[in-house]
## 1
Amino acid sequence: MAGLRPYADVLLCCFFFPLLW
């Protein structure tokens, strides 16, 4: 699971950035 942490962070950034914009 720890290996997927950076990938999850990138997905969260790509997902939340348009919402916050």
Note: Helices lie at 5-20.
## 2
Amino acid sequence: MSNVYEAIKLLDSIEERTALRTFFINNPEKKAETELILSTCNDNEEVVALLKSLLKPVPAATVKVLTGSPDELY
């Protein structure tokens, strides 16, 4: 399955489906990347796991805000 919106229909929760549709509308580059990954999933269970992982918040430790000059980054 390579169409992200078809894959979203596999989710049980209306809230999850709505959240992902909104996410992909607001992040078209993520939609394209997700569609590439979907083609590597072996079954619908794997597709659902991937989509649900996108709904989880990104831990603050993995988000790095860069400020200052490039010399200060090293």
Note: The longest helix spans residues 14-26.
## 3
Amino acid sequence: MATKDPRCKPHRRDWNAIETEYIQGYLDETGRHLFPTKADIQNKYNITMQVITKRAKEKSWDRRREEFQAELQKKTAERLMAEIANGGKGLNLNLYKMAADTVSRCHSLLPYAGTGQEIRNLIGAAKDAQAIASGILPTKTPEADIMQINVRGDIMSQIDISIDPAIINNVYLSHVDDEHRYQIFYGGSSSGKSYFLAQRLVIDMLRGGHNYLCCRKVARTVRKSLWNEIQKALSFFNVSHLFKSNASELVITGPNGWQILFVGLDDVEKVKSISPAKGVITDIWVEEATEAEYSDIKQLDKRLRGQSVVKKRLILSFNPIYQQHWLYQQYFAGHWADDSTRYADDTLSILKTTYKDNGFLMEDDIHALESESDPYWYSVYALGNWGILGHAIFHNWTTSDLSDTEFDSYVYGLDWGFSNDPTAIVQLHYERRTHTLYIKLAEYLHGYTNDLIAAEVKKLNPDLIICDSSEPKSIAELKRHGLCAIPATKGPDSVMYGIKWLSKQRIVIDASLRDAIAEFTTYKWLQDKDGKALPKPEDKNNHCLTGDTLVHTTNGILPIRELVGTTGKVYCYNEEKKCMTTSKYRDCRLTQKEAPILQIELEDGRVLKATAEHPVYTQRGWVTVGELTENDSILKLESINTQLLRVTEIKPAGVEDVFNLEVDCYHNFCVNGGLVVHNCIDAIRYACQYLMTEPDEPDQTLNQVSWPKAGAL
């Protein structure tokens, strides 16, 4: 006899038994996590409704189904409130992933016909359970010790957020609700300012009404700083499950639809076009604002427009560097002293903090900061004071006899030379524990070809050597000689970042390296006309031209001063083939203000003005302007034709601001019908690139940085 398909005639059972079995089974199964996932609940609900529908023989069962739904909601709410009374011990972190949604939409989602008081009880249970489950509200915190924060927004509009003040450093508590248009948080390393701003951001996002735009100067640094800092804050509050994080697009969407967007200020078009899914950008946070230009901040300020339910804010956070910086001149000059900690007017608030304000700092972190022996760097990086630049850039170095000292690992750097410039090769050892950089060797090679340079490098037997990236062909030649040579990375502000990193180390130079010692002694900040140091390194060794010097580019003939901040191609001279060619130029910059100038006049009336150190190509090869005589002739290059023009006069021409640029491969470019060219500290910066962490990770001391292993170099 064939077995009858049970689906043809469902087993009849008493309705009350079905109802009781489902509710009891549901509560037993989910006793530890009442709301596992939204899909799970919907699935259980659908199965139960299918069973009930199959057994529905009378219209009155529709009423019973509604009663069942109401009973399920009531019993769930009762269970929640029982858990609250028990201190929340049975609650799971996933408990309220959809609780707020269920509560606020209970009228439309489920035909719950309870009284107003029952609705309020259910909402109250949801509010308290969510706070406990997320860690925002400790289970046994006295009500008087809780800051109540109102909520704006959609799904979470009926929920209050309670914050335990103990989780925020006291110095920042009054700034949780700061509504000043412009807000500055600055000070010493490890003061906790970046983490507080991440905490406040999370609170704002749970409140609703806020769309954040989080910025760094360089886009590639955003993920390892701002993104990670905010993810840590979400995890700390145990609310990560309420947010959707799109790591590829760098967008975080809150439970109420408001968003956190991330961008690098070097991506100009993205800054102009980026927009949240709903509403307008209300808050812009610029981390490490000292990296940004004044024009960057002005552009961001213009993005804070349009209607919003909250006041708009531009937030800047950074460690101070020097008083010559535009941030100091714009926001601090005239009303700020180093012993100031707070300032506020109608639109601006400033808070200065140090490691002493961070109650969560570990003892070893405090020791690392307080053990800084250099008074200048202790004042700037530990105490958060604005520095005043002296003339010398590096004063954190000493000399020692390292001739008999052998280290277990080395890093190597190479900076290409040309003409009067030597090629520099350095051998360094870095002691991570003490943050000490040992310069074991620094060779200066004058007039060496790439074959000879490769032979010198091979004597050192390096695993890897990091080279100036402006010579890709020369790097390729080193590789053909069996060397592992790679180009250094040159990004925005890479010189200043390298100087900043080196300035934080203790540098020991072998006493026999006279040229290296001379470079560290003479490497100075650029000075203005009044003799005050500017936050740019002096560029005397990079041979400079006056701003009106006409450069032959593939886009036309332009004054060199107009090429600052641009890239492109220039016409230059291929010495091997004796002909004109083109090559990419980069890093056009002001190299010195009011430098002494020599003026060279040629037989056809052309004039060239440059510093004495600047080389030009003559009948006897490369000669500096200061070495020229009236017996020399300078090469004039036009198309495929070359011509030597005799020097008729050389005379001083006062002082002017001077400029220079870097040219790949050939190190020269065509100006005013002539040829000019374009170097150990640069080599050291290149070698140290793989020792450096990402620029300025928020509030880290050096001993908190995860350094790469020697084998990774």
Note: The chain has four domains: 15-154, 168-368, 397-528+685-712, 544-677.
## 4
Amino acid sequence: MAKYLKKEDFIKLGYSPEFLDEYFSVQSERELNAVIKEKEYLRKYYYEHKKKDDTKTKTKHEQKNYYEKLKADPEKYNEYLKKKREYCKKYHQKIKEDPEKYEKYKKRDRENKKIYYRRIKSDPEKYKKYLERKNNNKRKARQIKTQEKTSENKEKIIIPKS
């Protein structure tokens, strides 16, 4: 609990009695209370009438504008994606070196995936798009595997010319 000092305590600390008489007078208390009430009122007013465009929404809009500009220029966008991939690889390597951080990362990732899937499954249109994307990715992966197998087979079957 806070301990409040009295006038006598301030005199012991070396404050002048004239200053303390003025400080502890009824008029100064009224002034202090008025200032405190005004500050409380302003605090409540600002809290109730906060601007809708606070810094978080501004930064989100700035990020969207930045991404739109990047996507408009394909070369810069590809460079951005390349740098992002490199950064992600470095980040994952750094996390995998520390087992505790890696466990936290995996746990967070699982929770985020669960939340993401719940959101998607709650909206039927998003869920259809998700399934289409998933199936397309599977098809692409199969095509890549078959192409790799056929290219390996072609390399193995080299008929020497006589």
Note: The helical segments are 7-13, 17-23, 26-48, 55-72, 74-97, 99-122, 124-156.
